[in-house]
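STRUCTURE:
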C-alpha cells in the first residue's frame, strides 16, 4: 500500500525481472516481487516493480499499478503487509537510471527498492525509489 497515491495491490512473489514473458504475464495481477530479492523482514532489500504509463487511459490496459509512483517524494511512506505484520518504509532517495545500471540497485543498503519505467509509458530509463524501514507492527 502507498497511501499518498491511494495504491493497494497484491504482490506477486518471485517474478523474474530478466524474463519479459514471466513479468508481462504476472504484472497483469499486481506488483511484482523480484526473484532473488528478499521478503519483508529479511536480511536484504525487498525489490518490487510494476508498469507505469503515460496516460490515465492506459492504466487498466497495462495494469499500471505504478502509474502514480512518479509523484512520490523523499519522506513518503510505503506499507507492506506480510506474515501478519505491517512493514512501514520511508522513501529516502529517488534516482533515474539506465536499464543496465543494476549496480546502482545492488550497491544500495536500503530495505526496499521500487522500480518502474521512465519516462512513464516508455522503457528508456528506470525510476528507482529507495526506502528504509520505519516500523514493524503485528496486525
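SEQUENCE:
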Amino acid at each position: 500500500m502507498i497511501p499518498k497515491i491511494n495504491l493497494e495491490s497484491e504482490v506477486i512473489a518471485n517474478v523474474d525481472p530478466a524474463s519479459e514473458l514471466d513479468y508481462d504475464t504476472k504484472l497483469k495481477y499486481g506488483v511484482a516481487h523480484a526473484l532473488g530479492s528478499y521478503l519483508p523482514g529479511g536480511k536484504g532489500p525487498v525489490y518490487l516493480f510494476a508498469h507505469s504509463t503515460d496516460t490515465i487511459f492506459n492504466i487498466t490496459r497495462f495494469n499500471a499499478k505504478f502509474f502514480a509512483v512518479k509523484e512520490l517524494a523523499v519522506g513518503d511512506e510505503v506499507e507492506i503487509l506480510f506474515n501478519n505484520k505491517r512493514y512501514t518504509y520511508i522513501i529516502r532517495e529517488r534516482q533515474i537510471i539506465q536499464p543496465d545500471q543494476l549496480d546502482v540497485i545492488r550497491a544500495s543498503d536500503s530495505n526496499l527498492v521500487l522500480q518502474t519505467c521512465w519516462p512513464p509509458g516508455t522503457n528508456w530509463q528506470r525510476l528507482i525509489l529507495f526506502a528504509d524501514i520505519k516500523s514493524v507492527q503485528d496486525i
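REMARK: The radius of gyration is 14 Å.
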